[in-house]
Amino acid sequence: MKVILVSQRHGSTRSFTLGGWTRALVSVCLLGLPAGVGVMAGLEWAKGEGADLFNAEAAGAWRDDLSDQREKIELTRQQAEQQLAAITLRVAELQARLVRLDALGERLTSIAKLDSGEFDFSQPPALGGPESAALGDAYQAPEFVDVIDQLTAQIANREQQLEILETLLAKRKLENDVFLAGRPVSKGWMSSRFGRRTDPFTGRVAWHSGVDFAGKMGSDIISVAAGVVTWASQRQGYGYLVEINHGNGFSTRYAHNSELKVKVGDIVKKGQVIALMGTSGRSTGPHVHFEVYKHGRAVDPAAYIHRAAR
Ligand SMILES: [Zn+2]
């Protein structure tokens, strides 16, 4: 390294060559200068703004800040605990409700006489599907969240089961309505049975294709099941007749009425008044001649009259 020095006063120059350790020394001095300036500046800053760090008063304020924060953390922790307790209570309530729902479901299943295997309210629903590739290391939710997830799934399943059950029960009720049972009169007594009997007009043994209920003139004649009116007018021998088709191959006839309350095509409910008692047609006094047809053949109505409505 060659160093040239210029004198201001004499304008003369002097040059000399540095070598070895002298050169290293000069390099250190030149590089050390900015570092030294940096250190000095840092110390100056410390004396100014940073000075608080080192006096007792500031330390006290700091401790206050810390205890303040500790209090806030404690408060937050307490609030979190209270919220957790509230949620735990809520979950317990949901579990209790689910137990009641299960009990209701089991009772309904037993009332509806459904296969016990079809609706099992004590077991989780059967689920399946092909295994899918795991999406890496999934986030592990806390146990508590698992419980809520399980509860939600259980409740959704029970809702679905109860909905299906309701549909089934509604269908069963409809079937009950078309189920033939009971008497065609609310007041009256059976005056003649089904089968062989002495004909009241000829005095000869004849076949009686229905049963007779005697009662007061004009008393209510009621349908023994829901159905559609297929006849509502006079008919030879029957007088004023109502015939109702109940579906499933069943139909009923109500004869000798004084007045008809329905017309062909009417949909009637079980127990609905369809006519008033009379003595029209081949009749000796106020009564209803009641016939039950099963697939077009007159059968003994007694079996249907005496069976209990489901
Ligand atoms: Zn009769």
UniProtKB/TrEMBL annotation:
In this chain the M23ase beta-sheet core domain maps to: 208-301
Question: Which residues fall in a coiled-coil region?
Answer: 63-97
Instruction: Extract the GO molecular function terms from the UniProt entry.
Output: metalloendopeptidase activity
Q: What protein name applies here?
A: M23 peptidase domain-containing protein
Which keywords appear in this protein's UniProt record, sorted alphabetically?
Coiled coil
Q: Which domain of life is it from?
A: Bacteria
Q: Which SUPFAM superfamilies match?
A: Duplicated hybrid motif
Pfam families, per this entry?
Peptidase_M23
Task: Decide whether keyword Coiled coil is in the record.
Answer: yes
- Would the keyword Aminoacyl-tRNA synthetase be found if you checked this record's keyword annotation? no
